[in-house]
Specification:
It holds the Pfam family DUF6596. This is RNA polymerase sigma factor. One of its GO terms (molecular function) is sigma factor activity. InterPro entries: DUF6596, RNA_pol_sigma-70_dom, RNA_pol_sigma70_r2, RNA_pol_sigma70_r4_t2, RNA_pol_sigma_r2, RNA_pol_sigma_r3/r4-like, WH-like_DNA-bd_sf. Among the domains are: about 110-210, no CATH class; about 345-430. Helices cover about 70% and strands about 0% of the residues. It has 20 helices and two strands. The protein has helices at about 5-30, 30-55, 60-75, 80-90, 95-100, 110-120, 125-135, 140-150, 155-170, 180-200, 210-230, 235-245, 270-285, 295-305, 315-330, 335-345, 350-360, 370-380, 385-400, 400-425; strands at about 205, 400. The longest helix is centred in the first third of the chain and has 27 residues, at about 5-30. It is globular and about 70 Å long.
């Protein structure tokens, strides 16, 4: 295996295994920042050895074993050990040194769930909680998190560093809270799981359009939360949203990895078991008798697509109304952009373009690639190919995802071909 191929393979393994690795180490050392450092130490060793020795049969276990040994060595020889053993002695899980050797081999509770509640502790600001959790559980880089939130990478990096220091200084317990404390942290936990899922559903960067394993992990955590907090409608709303969205995975990319848009997907291949689970979760949220929150409303939007046997049967008028409700409770330029798409589908591209044009002056969307992408699509439908081409070119320059860039450049080429054809006396494209 070449060094570049080994690097790509190790990067992929890290994406898959890092959250479990950090969570297991955090239970062991009771320090999230230290757990991440130990995990990265194991990664560095893998980068040094695997290109020569080859990838182990179970790379996750190899990384865990390596990190565990470094943790034990650290606890044996550093001054930190006294405080750590003292903390372990006070905790409900009493470990001896022999226990520390074996604590990683059997899971006590759900470490990932403990980690997410730890990183969402109220001692941190909301922004810090989200950034740190996405970094540790989602395996996202600071650049990817910054891109998702439309802020500077340095801002995200500072938040993460400060958050780890704060958790360590406060000696936050590595546990799932109960009662009112659970409710207090729930909204941030839901937000992070939602963002994890979104990153898996449409990757902000890299060479793959989707990361299904990240979505599966987010869905698993959501299902566990629904058992822990069964009377919280937004928990069921988020689970419903993820179940329905997950049903489309087989149809979202071509065999060679190119993106397939929703309206072009083969709906016969959607996973109808996941759709039924999602609709049932949405019904549970509705039966709790409280106004639908943002996750339940998004689930209701996804349900409109799931219930339509063909793309032409989609109830875009209802979707537009649901987006209108969503803008009232969580107003944001991104939600407004989605509403514009629904308006365009329900009432024609000219109406949608009018809303999109109003968003072009929004500072937070200046580097957001989906704004010119949506605008290009609407212009294309209106037959304004030259303008559409410019928008797709700009969108391609802004995206960090290689597959999405290829897709946008193909649309650029389609527009260019139409412009050239019109100059040669060909017919202009008609609105869809």
């Amino acid at each position: 295996m070449t060094s570049s191929a080994a690097q790509r393979t190790i990067d992929a393994i890290w994406r898959i295994e890092s959250a479990n690795l950090i969570a297991g180490l955090a239970r062991m050392v009771r320090d999230v920042g230290l757990a991440e450092d130990l995990a990265h130490d194991a990664l560095v060793i893998a980068l040094e050895r695997w290109p020569d020795t080859g990838i182990p049969d179970n790379p996750g276990a190899w990384l865990m074993t390596t990190a565990k040994r470094r943790a034990i060595d650290l606890m044996r020889r550093s001054k930190l050990s006294d405080r750590k053993y003292e903390e372990l002695g006070r905790s409900s899980d009493l470990y001896t040194e022999h226990d520390l050797e074996n604590t990683m081999d059997g899971e006590i509770g759900d470490d990932l769930l403990r980690l997410i509640f730890t990183t969402c502790h109220p001692v941190l600001s909301r922004e810090a909680r989200v950034a740190l959790t996405l970094r540790l559980l989602g395996g996202l880089t600071t650049d990817e998190i910054a891109h998702a939130f439309l802020v500077a990478e340095s801002t995200i990096a500072q938040r993460i560093v400060r958050a780890k220091r704060t958790l360590s200084a406060a000696r936050v317990l590595f546990e799932v809270p109960l009662g009112e404390e659970l409710k207090e942290r729930l909204s941030t936990v839901l937000e992070v799981i939602y963002l994890m899922f979104n990153e898996g559903y449409t990757a902000t960067s890299g060479g793959n359009w989707i990361h299904p394993l990240l979505c599966q992990e987010a869905l698993r955590l959501g299902r566990i939360l629904a058992e822990i907090a069964p009377t919280e409608p937004e928990v069921h709303g988020l689970v419903a949203l993820m179940e329905i969205q997950s049903s489309r995975f087989k149809t979202r990319v071509s065999p060679t990895g190119e993106p397939i848009l929703l309206m072009d997907q083969n709906r016969a291949l959607w996973d109808h078991l996941l759709i039924r689970r999602g609709l049932a979760a949405l019904e549970r949220a509705q039966k709790l008798g409280r106004p639908l929150g943002p996750y339940a409303l998004q689930a209701a939007i996804s349900a409109c697509h799931a219930r339509a046997c063909t793309a032409s049967e989609t109830d875009w008028t209802r979707i537009a109304a649901l987006y209108e409700a969503l803008t009232r409770i969580t107003p944001s330029p991104v939600v407004e952009l989605n509403r514009a798409v629904a308006i365009a589908m329900a009432f024609g591209p000219a109406f949608g373009l009018q809303i999109v044009d109003e968003l072009t002056s929004e500072p937070s969307l200046k580097e957001y690639h989906l704004l010119p992408s949506v605008r290009g699509d609407l212009l294309m439908k209106l037959g304004r190919m030259g303008e559409a081409k410019e928008e797709f070119e700009r969108a391609a320059s802004l995206t960090h995802n290689a597959r999405e860039r290829e897709f946008l450049l193909k649309r650029t080429a389609e527009c260019a071909a139409n412009v050239s054809g019109n100059r040669g006396g060909g017919r202009s494209a008609r609105p869809n």
